[in-house]
Specification:
The chain is an alpha+beta fold. The chain has a single domain, classed as 3-Layer(aba) Sandwich (Aminopeptidase), CATH 3.40.630.30. It is built from 4 helices and 7 strands. A hairpin with a 5-residue loop joins β3 and β4. The mean pLDDT is 93.
Amino acid sequence: MKLLFGQNEYVGGIVGSVLGVTFYGPYSSIGFLDDTGHVRGGAIFNNYNGSNIEVTVYAPNMATRGMIRAVMHYVFVQLGCNRMTARTRRNNKAAHKALPRMGFKYEATLQLYYGPGKNDAAVLYWIDRETALNKWLQRSS
């Protein structure tokens, strides 16, 4: 696994096209490259306010501990955030299973966030600095 930095519009365009969303600046990104050097996923960071940043991740069948550590390092070490927010659709079962395993906690459900249907609700999760550092950045596993 290799990471790609400094190509925000490129990575944001790929992740956005797959997820059917448009990312509006300013935002930063980390691209996830496959063995051939092609971007197969990425993490988009936006709505940074000094204490919190939102993350959107697309990494189909390729999420690794290294990728998660890179995301946590960027948010909590480089930016010095106190928390990170992840938002997903109500029907994204994979995210609802994976986020708590990574240390994220359920925060809220935003009805009608993505549209008029029941599954158009957004579910918010968050992780705090201490949890992220202890779980992802202070072990050599």
